[in-house]
Write a structure and sequence with these properties.
Elements lengths: L3 E6 L20 E6 L5 E7 L2 E3 L11 H4 L4 H11 L3 E5 L11 H21 L4 E6 L5 H12 L3 E6 L14 H10 L3 E4 L5 H6 L4 H18 L2 H4 L5 E4 L6 H16 L13 E5 L5 H8 L4 E3 L14 H8 L4 H16 L6
Parallel strand pairs: 1-5, 5-6, 6-7, 7-8, 8-9, 9-10, 10-11
Antiparallel strand pairs: 2-3, 3-4
Helix pairs in contact: 3-4, 4-5, 7-9
């Protein structure tokens, strides 16, 4: 039985942009370091005339060549040491908005995705990835989704707010339809895709990166997106799972009172909705509301923020708070079902 890390990361480097072609090379991000008034040095990308962060969230418990994928063998060896068979890779740069120009977005997404496809090809099936779509251009996004499906991608990366659209906006219905057809889940990862909101709450990462995902998850259920697309799987990634009881309670108040619909206390148990938990969650309590088949866990490999726990998968088993049968589901069966991965190597 495989052990699947449901949320690991790559750290983008200048090599990420080597896949830009032709005139798209003019959009190549430029790395820059700046001395801040605090006395610290911060590292940015210059993208489309803006300073974009994301180069400083680096976990010191991972090797540079491993987290930047300069040495894929080193990454695989480290996974062996951690007891991890498969990692699902999410971006670092794109956890925030990077441009509001469709042509720039398309070029950067294509280069990033081809970099990840090469990583997957060299990773012996152990490094799967979530595709970064150019969502400012839905027709191009659908083309990129189809390409990525055949090149190792196992999920669609989305943030809690994308461009100027909420995730239940009709704008995204073609994406959900095509993702359903291709058996590609939507991984709503901690992050924001809107410049105005990001800048308004720049010093409040909990509100801008975490709560926006929980709100999007709530709204998707409230607006009936899982019902409209019964084959679509939706996951909340890197926002812990402590909020699940609150959302279950709240939705079961709102559905009958505001929409005249029947309450659904077991809606998390329907096989479409998933949440990546953390080892410091009260998992036995969460399981009462989420059920045994919807929880996964990720290490946030490569990062150094509050969600990072390199040994999360091992510690979940070591804590002994949940019976081994359920832990096996969290470590293997549930993420395998969510991402459409085989249960055996």
């Amino acid at each position: 039985m495989l052990t699947i890390d449901a949320d690991a990361h790559v750290i983008e480097t200048e090599r990420t942009w080597d896949y830009l072609e032709g005139s798209d090379r003019r959009y190549r991000p430029v790395p820059i370091s700046a001395d801040m008034p605090t006395g610290k040095t911060r590292n940015f990308w210059i993208i489309d005339g803006r300073l974009i962060g994301g180069r400083d969230n680096i976990g010191a418990d991972t090797g540079k060549d491993s987290r930047e994928m300069a040495d894929i063998g080193a990454r695989l060896r480290h996974m062996d040491e951690l007891g991890t068979d498969v990692q699902v890779l999410y971006p670092t740069l794109f956890l925030r908005p990077v441009t509001d120009r469709p042509d720039v977005e398309l070029a950067l997404c294509r280069s990033y995705n081809r970099w990840l496809a090469d990583i997957w090809f060299k990773g012996k099936g152990r490094l799967r990835w979530a595709v970064q779509l150019p969502l400012l251009s839905m027709d191009k996004a659908l083309d990129e989704l189809r390409w990525a499906r055949g090149n190792g991608a196992c999920a669609v990366f989305m943030r809690g707010l994308e461009t100027n659209h909420t995730l239940h906006d009709p704008y995204f219905l073609p994406l959900y339809e095509e993702a359903s057809r291709l058996d590609m889940p939507i991984g709503i990862h901690s992050g924001i895709g809107n410049f105005a909101v990001n800048e308004a709450f720049n010093e409040e990462p909990f509100r801008v990166a975490k709560l926006v995902v929980i709100g999007a998850f709530h709204a998707l259920v409230m607006k009936g997106i899982p019902e409209r697309f019964p084959r679509l799987r939706i996951g909340a990634i890197e926002v812990s799972s402590q909020w699940v009881p609150y959302v279950v309670h709240d939705l079961n108040l709102r559905l009958p009172k505001l929409l005249g619909k029947e309450a659904k206390p077991d809606f998390m148990r329907g096989g479409q909705l998933y949440v990546a938990c953390q080892t410091d969650d009260d998992i036995p309590y969460v399981l009462k509301y989420a059920g045994e088949d919807s929880l996964m866990i990720g290490s946030d490999y490569g990062h150094a923020d509050n969600a990072s726990e390199l040994l999360a998968l091992r510690r979940l088993r070591d804590k002994g708070e949940v019976e081994p049968r359920v832990i096996d589901k969290i470590l293997c069966a549930n993420p395998a079902r969510f991402y459409g991965l085989p249960l055996e190597g």
